[in-house]
Amino acid sequence: MTKKQIHLLLKRYPQIVEAIRKEKTSIRLVVSKKKLVLPIDDRLHTFVRAVKSALEINPDGYATPIMTARVCSTKSDIDLYTDFYITETEFYRIKSNFINKVFAFCILYGLVNAEEIL
């Protein structure tokens, strides 16, 4: 799993969690006007666990609610940083750090192989 794939899955995280909750075997996503069928397997469950771990372990006290709102809602980035009264630069710094943290947890849980790290 690459960072690009993690970013793609984070954008669709609410849909993924809902499909897992409903115990579906696959989920249909639209990515750049292309239909994508993603099987719900152990790798996807592990990805959800990595996101939850990244949300729980956050040294910045104010970053946790911002990233929880970003991951668990369908609001746009602009809506979120205006809702939380932070600058655009600060929001994207927090978001980048969060994606790096999710990537680190994906490495820890074995979703990322050595070629993708290098």
Could you explain the architecture of this structure?
α3 (42-56) packs across α6. The longest helix is centred in the last third of the chain and has 21 residues, at 88-108. It contains seven helices and two strands. It has helices at 3-11, 13-21, 42-56, 63-72, 77-83, 88-108, 114-117, and strands at residues 26-31, 34-39. 64% of the residues lie in helices and 10% in strands. It is mainly α. A two-stranded antiparallel ribbon has the order 1-2.
Whole-angstrom Rg: 14 Å
Quantity of strands, as a count: 2
Helix content: 55-70%
Q: Which residue ranges are poorly predicted, with pLDDT under 50 across at least 5 consecutive positions?
A: none
Strand percentage lies at: 5-15%
Q: Structural class given helices, strands, pairing?
A: mainly alpha
Number of helices: 7
Q: What is the terminal separation in angstroms? A: 13 Å
Using the alpha-carbon principal axes, give the shape: globular
Strand order of the largest sheet: 1-2
Query: Major β-sheet, in short?
Result: 2 strands, antiparallel
Element order: H for helix, E for strand: HHEEHHHHH
Mean pLDDT: 87
Could you write a compact summary of the structure shown?
The protein is mainly alpha-helical. Helix content is 64%, strand content 10%.
How are the SSEs placed, and which strands pair?
Elements: H1 3-11, H2 13-21, E1 26-31, E2 34-39, H3 42-56, H4 63-72, H5 77-83, H6 88-108, H7 114-117
